[in-house]
């Protein structure tokens, strides 16, 4: 775990390198994965990849809609038992929208029942941004009752994260605004870059 924390705390290189790493991570989401029965499933398709064999893929996608905005990566080897929740909503700077929140809620409920997970790390794949808070563009399209339900859903998600039975770490590598800061505060520990 110390190695993971050191890796997260190391100052990042140039923004071009971060962008390249971020693009590689995004491209990795669109590779083909084999199910146990040998059928191919495309990440980003309509099928859920949560049923894939963990030995075939370290990535567990929670696919509820048309795109993956929150992903789960289980570390292997010496870091086995560490799960990274990766926020990868690039265009909206990890803003907390309906799809993002539902995928995050599904992942958190999966992690709360997983006895193999010892530590959960929340981090962003968007360079310079941890989480930009609520998606105000989506929020502007909601009526009052929809907005109230959305805010209630956000609060319950933060409570769900705070009540995870394993230690949680927010690896903050950029801005954490509004609900993004609430997400970081819901974690047990927070690490941040300069």
TrEMBL record:
Belongs to the enoyl-CoA hydratase/isomerase family. Gene3D superfamilies: 2-enoyl-CoA Hydratase, Chain A, domain 1 (3.90.226.10). This is Enoyl-CoA hydratase domain-containing protein 2, mitochondrial. InterPro entries: ClpP/crotonase-like_dom_sf, Enoyl-CoA_hyd/isom_CS, Enoyl-CoA_hydra/iso. It comes from Ilyodon furcidens (goldbreast splitfin). The gene is ECHDC2. It comes from the Eukaryota.
């Amino acid at each position: 775990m110390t190695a993971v924390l050191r890796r997260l705390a190391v100052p990042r290189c140039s923004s071009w390198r971060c962008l390249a790493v971020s693009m590689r991570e995004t491209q990795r989401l669109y590779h083909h994965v084999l199910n146990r029965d040998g059928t191919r499933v495309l990440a980003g398709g309509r099928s859920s990849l949560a049923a894939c064999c963990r030995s075939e893929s370290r990535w567990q996608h929670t696919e509820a809609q048309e795109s993956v905005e929150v992903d789960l990566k289980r570390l292997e080897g010496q870091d086995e038992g560490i799960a990274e929740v990766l926020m990868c909503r690039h265009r909206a700077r990890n803003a907390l929208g309906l799809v993002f929140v539902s995928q995050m809620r599904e992942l958190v409920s999966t992690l709360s029942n997983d006895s193999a997970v010892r530590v959960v790390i929340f981090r962003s794949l968007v360079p310079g941004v941890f989480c930009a808070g609520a998606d105000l563009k989506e929020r502007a399209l909601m009526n009052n009752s929809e907005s109230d339900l959305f805010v209630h859903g956000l609060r319950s998600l933060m409570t769900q994260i705070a009540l995870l039975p394993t230690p949680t770490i927010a690896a903050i590598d950029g801005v954490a605004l509004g609900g993004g800061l609430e997400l970081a505060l819901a974690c047990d520990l927070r690490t941040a870059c300069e």
